[in-house]
Here is the input.
Amino acid sequence: MSFARASNIGHFKRSGDPALSEGYISHFLSRVIRKKHEGDRITLKHNTIYVIPSTTGLGFVSVSALNFVLGINYQNNLLLGVAYLMIILLVVSIIYGYLNMSGAQIRLVSIQSAHRSTPPTATFELNTKARLQQLSIEHNHIKQQITLPVVEASELFSIEFEFPRGKHSLGRFKFISHFPFGLVSVWSYLYCNKCIYAYPDPVVDKSNRQEFESHNREAQLVHSSSHLSDEFKQLVPYQSGTNMHRISWRHFAKTQQLLVKDYEGETGARTLGFDFDTLEGNVEERLEKLCYLVLQAHQNNLCYALKLGPRLIKAAQGEQHKVTCLEALSDY
Amino acid sequence: MITNHLTITLSYLLITFLPVTPFGTPFNILMLLLAIWHGVMVYKKNTGVKNSLLNIIAILGIAITVISINITNTVELFVALMLLACQLKVLQATTNRQWQQIHVLNFFTIPSVFLFSQSLYVALMVMMLLGINLVAMLQLQHRASLAYSGKFTLSTVLLSMALSILLLIFMPKLPAFWQMPGPTLAKTGLTEDVDPFNIVKLAKSDELAFRAIFSDGSQPQINTPLYWRAIIHDKFDGNQWRMSNLQNVSSNLTANSNQPPYKIIAQASNLPWLYALEHAISPTKAVNNNYFGTLFRTDKITSTFEYQVQPANARQQVHMPNWQYRFYTTLPEQLNPKTQALAKQWDLSSTTTKQFIDLMQLYFVTQAFSYTLTPDVTNSEHKVDQFLFEYKNGFCGHYASSVAILLRSAGIPARLVSGYLGAEYNNQLGYFSVYQYDAHAWVEYYVPNEGWKVLDPTAWVSPDRLLGSLSEHQTLAGEFQQNLGLSLVAWSDFKAVNWLRLQLEQLDYQWTRWVLNFDQQKQASLLQALFGAKGKQWVGALVILIISVVLTLLFFYVKRAQQVKEALAIKRYRQLIGLSKKNLSAAPPKRAVDELIQQFTDHREMLQQFYADFAANRYQGKSFGKNQNKHAKNLINSIKTKAKR
Here is the structure.
């Protein structure tokens, strides 16, 4: 198992940074670029913006050369003029393309780890002094390329990732624009070292439920009970991490005080234990089932512990505990 | 977006139906049908035609194109196929990538019209179509409004055009690498073999043949007829006067230094023969003169061409060798017996060539010959007989041909010359325009001890024709205009129309002279005049420098224009907090100023005053005027000077 996982991660790293698998020069270049673009934010300016003619631009240059040859051979000044005009247009496009991007600031605002198919997202903020036209964001694990047609002053945008289950470094984002005319590619990078988790998708364990229930009596509660069936006991002050469903909004509306409804016979009474080894199926299936159990236990404000092979997460409850468990599941 | 696609199709259609692109009716119809198809597709909101269907249409289209355009006309065929391919690609395209390819290809397809015509109007049209193409490219990238895209494209193109004109003027011009086939587009009034008795579409074209530019004071007198010689015909085969074998053989003549040189800008004629008054030589590269003193170029003239003409002395020919005498008096003996008999009769009753010509003139004048552009069609084998004794009407070709035959019959060496007679003079710019309808034919005959002389029998019949251009010819006006059909010249009776025609003609002259014929020679002399012999070699570097400077200016201009201008109050505020030791950029203004007051206690009042002004401006919408600004500046300066001490 661990072998498979290691190779999996190795594979991801390679594909996440294709430059690494290229030759020595590109390796060196990518390291230089990486050093320059590492961090959570970047200001696009002369030393972080790269400009070259795009494929269309190269086609444009060859058409210009063709016009030049025709102009020379037919001694046709107008054709020559068109050839010169095209070259100058390309240079002017480079200037406009560069100025379009320069001065913009891109900042990573937040990372939202989530289930694999939710999906995990990262939110960026883009600030520009001037109008920025047509910016696309590229990433190796992106669901679909994001294009912002026009950014006037500042804009928030989220990137949805298509990661396999696991813990991932955000890696390289490429911000690219072909403004104007599509003749030039103007781009910059942002290398983000922050991590994002793609939790396994929760899957209800159907096939083995009978056996599962008999082995683990408490687990039954996960399916059958909800806090609504319990008897109301008292209101206690809100603590961060408590399930939002339990907040008494009626009190909040009246007194502006966040109080949490406490139910009879709830906490401490039952502690669940989820064990990777007791479940059936391959690694992914087991993790998905565990994920479902963790979510359900959390929703029902149950205290639960998680055992993943050698690693044991002690019984607890609350938002933080859920996140710890989910991260452990992702990182298995 | 979809309207953009349709405009591209419309540009192809416009190019196809342009009068200067001779693609033939089948091809025009094909392109029209494809355009209609695209229109219907756009209307029905369909995109992308199946490849298999397109392949069939492509094969059919190529067949139609080859049928429509003769396969020997390589240039027309190439441009037509290019148009067809682009149009099919437009029908096929669905993705942005495909559209990008089309837009880039258009930068080749649209300017290819310049191979056919380089007139000002065509140039404007091509620029407009390229502009539309660029707008479409811009809109493909980001969906901005049409107004924005149009404005952006216009400003970019205008700037780029200015710079490329600089490049065009100053970049060293290269000679042609290799010969390319030219498009066949000539509408010339001249033919290499003259057959006057065939129905000739003479005088039907009001297109320009060439322009002549004389330096000031050396213009020919207004009242001398201008005979522009082009082709010598010295063999008559019964139907046609054939071009001389020596027409394209270069020969040496001596320059006549008494007469000043002049320039001629010839329009494309698809013939190598050039025009000059009387005998001439030319210093221009690739232009030679032949034995007869007419000029020719080594290859056909497929675009406007400017050359220098130096008047030359005619070859002194006191005696004519026997073989030459026989050559210049040869006629098919069995044809035109009446004509030959009449010539022999005049020969007996005259002693000199002069007397013989007088007899001929008398005959033409007394027999009431008339000049017409629509002569009777001859049906006999003896065409000259029929003309001289029956119909007695015709145009220059008839008269010249008949007189040359009469002269040869009497044993006087004679040959036919074709070229142009007359010219329209432009008073303002001082040049002569000669049009296709000025095409003319006349006779040269040989007199021993005197040499070759000019004789224009048309003048006996229609003396008006000798001076000015045919368009100014009064008696023929009606007939002339009928022949021309729809044309501005045909309406020259109306003053406004004539004025407009002359203005357009003047504009075209300047365009031809300064844009189309700006060649290596002109460039060299311009550079010499501007920078002297020494500076010339630095011109290329200078131009690149100028262009770099302009582009750098553009860079800073756009950068400035893009930046939002900060309000004055904020600017001063930023300067102030910059003076602090702490970083106050994130602090709210009130706290920042309090911090400053703590640091610079001496300036407490001034700082408080500044904050009051600042707050009044920012939060209450009051103005931050001159006084407030002055106060803020004083504050900043005094803090600075204090800090230095």
